[in-house]
Recover the amino acids of this structure.
């Protein structure tokens, strides 16, 4: 294959290799990118036919392949990769957010980028490699694209930055930051950190742009060498209006501007519903104007071609030029805040947080360690003890629609709120529970994911989970005009999220930032924009925390009476097999008899989870009996489980038996063991012997008072001779 092209560079101290021309040759463009031994295939295809969508139909799919990591899927009944995992969806969203703004948003042809992970090493995350690969295929394809861009991960630990940290290094970072962009601007941010200061973050962003500069130049050089000629954008954007219809648009816009002042900017319009009603009035009046001036034109077609874009543009300009917002707020004003806890009677913890029309109900459920989520992904096989799930039913948007499976947006919002809380959770040793928080969006109008952070931290404190402190989240928007003037503003909502803006979500505490997610509809953010947004986010976060702290300041001292209790006991790791039993029989019996849940880790810590004290006590007793060390001289209650001619086997615990020899049943002569003992009898015995292999000799008569010897009584003489004859232990009886 003579058309194969290879390009190599060094990126963060490791070789980055891009190959074009070997795989997937029916696409608009394809390439493989190898970083270390992690390799991904990126493809892009654009349909020739125009889509029916009224938006840019661009999608990014991230395909995890278990073979890439040398693994076979863990399920017994399904070995083929199924629907995308949450991790794959999040990686796809991460790549998508940096690319989407670089297309002409009027394109109506389906464009699909697929990132397929072909090989995965133990060091390099394929998500950042996927950003580079997707940027490359779009750059060298014939699809109009204002790239390329770079992607990078920045770690921070011990006051030092780590470029593209390995999986091992990422396990204990203070900051884990992924960005895409260029040397001048950032287009996408995904961050988790341990209460990171704004100053450290600003340095991390500056570092990322500096490190991405040679990477972007490398991609540009590939584009120059092998890039296809781009299709003209106008050939991909549908021609909605003819020249005569387009000619009247400026006149219509001039007619609409005073109506916008009348309906939107001079009288604060407080709710989303009211704003929709006002816009409908504006729409209807403008339709009548077009009909009166141009009766032969299709007035609705003309107005629909630019109405939404024009409204968004005017809303941005009102903020930028006059500090006017449609609901009357100032640039840094928050919508009305409200919060409450303990709102549901039977749950383990609950809270409602409201910011304006955005309202979220967050509910905590505590479970046993064994309730942790088992993850069997391409990248790892592990468990997850804290989960945050986000739901937004159609009613939360004031709509009636079919309830479908969870969407990519909901998965992303849930993951973002989860990231913000994880650094604040107690250790597993301190609080061994599995924790699930569900945030139900009751009403959505601007940054419900940030409201979920607030609701989560409130509900966790209400549940008595000893989180370190409360966390809050806020979204910062941006207004921008065509010449590049800009202004950021606090607490973004509906009409303010227009083209040229951004959604800069920041979650954290009073002491620092724990999570950031940013996407933009512009060509990227400069450091000045980022600094300004972080400052506004900090001030807003503190205001929200004032409200949260007025409701609950610290975790409740006691768990809900409906929450399970967990106690732990430490056993010898060698005894774990005894507690579990063959095929899990012993531990299943404990669970069935007590109703408790038993979890054992490899170090020998046994977690007992129960809803009532009796179950807890009974389970602890049963486990302690199993692992108990039996010593000579101990007196034990046991159960007869086997009768033999020469003695009986007594169960001392589920894992330990002992032998009562016929001689040790009584001082009185015993002719048949069955004359005295029956299977199932409960007997008190004393341990009188224990050999090196652990076999135990028992005695019942050792607990009886020894009869006094009467030299004149033949029966006493016989008993004395019987009991004092020389003999060996039962377990030594076969030794020569």
């Amino acid at each position: 294959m003579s058309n194969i092209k290879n390009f190599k560079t060094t990126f963060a101290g490791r070789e980055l290799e891009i190959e074009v021309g070997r795989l997937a040759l029916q696409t608009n463009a394809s390439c493989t990118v190898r970083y270390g031994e992690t390799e991904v295939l990126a493809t892009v295809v654009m349909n020739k036919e125009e889509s029916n969508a009224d938006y840019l139909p661009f999608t990014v799919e991230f395909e995890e392949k278990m073979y890439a990591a040398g693994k076979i899927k863990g399920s017994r009944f399904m070995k083929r990769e199924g629907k995308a995992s949450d991790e794959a969806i999040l990686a796809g969203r991460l790549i998508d957010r940096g690319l989407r703004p670089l297309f002409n948003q009027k394109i109506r042809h389906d464009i699909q980028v697929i990132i397929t992970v072909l090989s995965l090493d133990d060091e390099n995350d394929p998500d950042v490699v996927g950003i580079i690969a997707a940027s490359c295929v779009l750059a060298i394809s014939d699809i109009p694209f204002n790239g390329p861009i770079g992607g990078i991960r920045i770690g921070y630990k011990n006051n030092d930055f780590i470029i593209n940290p390995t999986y091992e290094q990422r396990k204990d970072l203070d900051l884990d930051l992924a960005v895409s962009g260029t040397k001048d601007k950032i287009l996408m941010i995904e961050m988790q950190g341990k209460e990171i200061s704004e100053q450290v973050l600003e340095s991390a962003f500056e570092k990322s742009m500096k490190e991405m500069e040679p990477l972007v130049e490398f991609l540009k050089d590939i584009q120059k060498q092998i890039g296809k000629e781009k299709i003209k954008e106008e050939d991909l954007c549908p021609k909605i209006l003819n020249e005569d219809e387009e000619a009247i648009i400026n006149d219509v816009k001039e007619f609409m501007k005073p109506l916008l002042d009348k309906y939107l900017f001079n009288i604060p319009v407080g709710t989303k519903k009211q704003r929709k009603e006002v816009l409908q009035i504006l729409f209807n009046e403008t339709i009548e104007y077009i009909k009166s001036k141009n009766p032969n034109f299709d007035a609705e077609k003309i107005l629909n071609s630019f109405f939404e874009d024009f409204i968004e543009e005017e809303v941005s300009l009102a903020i930028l030029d006059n500090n006017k917002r449609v609901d009357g707020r100032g640039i840094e004003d928050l919508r009305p805040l409200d919060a409450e806890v303990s709102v549901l009677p039977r749950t383990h913890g609950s809270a409602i947080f409201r910011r304006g029309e955005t309202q979220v109900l967050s509910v905590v459920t505590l479970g046993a360690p064994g309730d942790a989520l088992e993850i069997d992904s391409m990248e790892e096989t592990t468990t997850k003890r804290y989960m945050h799930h986000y739901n937004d039913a159609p009613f939360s948007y004031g709509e009636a629609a079919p309830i479908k499976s969870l969407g990519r947006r909901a998965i992303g919002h849930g993951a973002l709120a989860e990231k913000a809380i994880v650094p604040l959770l107690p250790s597993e040793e301190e609080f061994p529970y599995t924790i699930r928080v569900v945030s139900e969006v009751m009403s959505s109008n601007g940054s419900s994911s940030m409201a979920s952070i607030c609701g989560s931290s409130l509900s966790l404190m209400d549940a008595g989970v000893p989180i370190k402190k409360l966390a809050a989240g806020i979204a910062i928007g941006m207004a921008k005009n065509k010449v590049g003037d800009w202004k950021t503003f606090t607490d973004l909502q509906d009409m303010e999220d227009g083209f040229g803006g951004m959604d800069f979500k920041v979650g954290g505490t009073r002491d620092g930032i724990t999570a950031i997610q940013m996407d933009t509809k512009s060509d990227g953010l400069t450091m000045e924009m980022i600094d300004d947004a972080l400052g506004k986010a900090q001030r807003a976060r503190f205001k929200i925390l004032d409200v949260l702290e007025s409701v609950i300041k610290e975790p409740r001292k006691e768990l809900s009476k409906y929450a399970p209790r967990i106690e732990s006991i430490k056993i010898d790791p060698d005894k774990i097999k005894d507690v579990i039993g063959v095929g899990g029989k012993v531990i299943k019996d404990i669970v069935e008899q007590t109703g408790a849940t038993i979890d054992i880790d490899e170090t020998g810590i046994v977690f007992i989870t129960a809803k009532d004290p009796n179950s807890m006590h009974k389970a602890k007793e049963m486990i302690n009996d199993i692992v108990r060390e039996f010593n000579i001289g101990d007196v034990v209650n046991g159960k007869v489980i086997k009768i033999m001619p020469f003695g009986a086997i007594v169960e001392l615990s589920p894992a330990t038996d002992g032998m009562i020899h016929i001689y040790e049943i009584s001082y009185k002569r015993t002719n048949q063991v069955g004359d005295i003992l029956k299977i199932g009898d409960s007997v008190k015995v004393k341990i009188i012997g224990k050999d090196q292999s652990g076999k135990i000799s028992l005695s019942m008569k050792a607990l009886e008072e020894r009869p006094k010897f009467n030299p004149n009584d033949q029966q006493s003489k016989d008993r004395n001779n019987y009991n004092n004859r020389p003999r060996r232990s039962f377990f030594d009886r076969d030794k020569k």
